[in-house]
Amino acid sequence: MINRVIIIVLDSVGVGELPDASLYGDVGTNTLAHVAQAVGGLDLPNFERLGLGNIIQIEGVPPVEHAAGAFGKMTELSCAKDSTTGHWELAGIITKSPWPIYPDGFPPEVIEPFERAIGRGILGNRTASGTDIMKELGEEHVRTGKPIVYTSADSVFQIAAHEDIVPLSELYRWCEIAREIMAGPHAVARVIARPFLGKPGEFYRTPARKDFSVAPPVLTVLDRVHNAGLSTIAIGKIEDLFACRAMTEALHGASNKENTEHIISVIVSGRGSLVFANLVDFDMKYGHRNDPEGYAAALKAFDSELPTILSSMKADDLLIITADHGCDPTTPGTDHTREYVPVIAVGPATVPGVDMGVRASFCDVAGTVCEALGVASPPCAKSFLGDIL
Q1: Sign of the C-alpha dihedral, residues 215, 220, 226, 227?
Q2: Phi, psi torsion values for 70, nearest 5 degrees
């Protein structure tokens, strides 16, 4: 009997190219395996015991004969490789049409009404690395007060501003304006506030980032659980990705460490029927910055917390660890990568060592949650609960 499911999304920890990776320019990518190769092998003893090395070949993480968890990998069916799409599919929604992207910057019908609404011009308006464009245009922004607007290979409208020049409340208001403008054919997945501090040559991002996402078009697993009168707890950027919908409680930390502390605290307290958490540092701090050493260190840090997480679980808890896409830091680019994601399921009531194989969709996570908690499952999902109990 399962009465609580905890989902932890290791943001961007992909496990190898999907069959359609060529359509996304991602042939040969493998975030986890390539990070391991780049650092001469990963040291993840707790993940090893759970069966991570049974999913794919990972230097330093060998397969084990008697894994403590059930293990497998999942295929993304949605037409994208971004966080919103990945999380939505985990929650039971397959995105059939790609989000709009702007490799040449945003058109006048977007930028002009935005400038009128905020009462000033903008800087940038191109595809760029957030840290690079902050270094390049940060001084001019401080001098003029004009926000830095940029995008990436993902469907995002990002606004960077210095907190001493543009108060956070104003930056967030500008994002709300952009969110209203970015509708219809320009309905990007996310408008993102990117505040920063510091002086020229020493600018740095602050933890006050905020995402303004499109609301999911149909019921998610959060809606299904919440509508059944059960409690849902969002940790990390989950609240932002699901437009703050169907959440009893939302907790935000500034780092993997802080969000892991939230996860452990919630598990110990017994709160929530569905706990849905995201750990973003793998992607934001290391994948996008081509830093396999930092990525490996972040994996090791989370691995060291696994014993506490597992020992804190109640007898009727189920833990699912997965990812939302890849972001291979060993590739020349800095974009997300189109990959399979790992899935590990473990709890006091689960059967150890079950090979769940290759799941047809991320939606199977939603199906498993719904079956475990006794609510209606999304049509795209096939639960693996019966395989692991």
Answers
A1: positive
A2: -90, 145
Residue with tokens 């395996």: 33
Q: What single letter denotes the amino acid at residue 140?
A: E
Greatest Cα pair distance in the chain: 64
pLDDT value of position 153: 81
As a whole number of angstroms, the distance between CA 341 and CA 357 comes to: 12
For 91-106, the three-class secondary structure string (H helix, E strand, C coil) is CCCCCCCCCCCCCCCC
46 and 306 Cβ atoms separated by less than 8 Å: yes
Q: Report the distance separating Cα 47 and Cα 306, nearest Å.
A: 8
Q: Which two tokens stand for residue 153?
A: 């290979």
Q: Token pair for residue 48?
A: 């090893």
- Specify whether the CB–CB gap between 233 and 242 falls below 8 A: no
pLDDT in tens, 297-325: 999 999 999 999 999 999 999 999 999 99
pLDDT for 386: 97
Sheet strands (E) in the chain: 4-10, 70-74, 123-127, 148-151, 156-162, 190-197, 204-205, 210-213, 232-235, 249-251, 274-279, 317-322, 341-346, 355-359
Is the Cα dihedral 300, 91, 314, 263 positive or negative? positive
pLDDT over 90 at 98, yes or no: no
Does residue 118 come out as left (phi exceeding 0), alpha (psi in the -120 to 50 range) or beta? Answer: alpha
| Res. 127: pLDDT tops 90 | yes
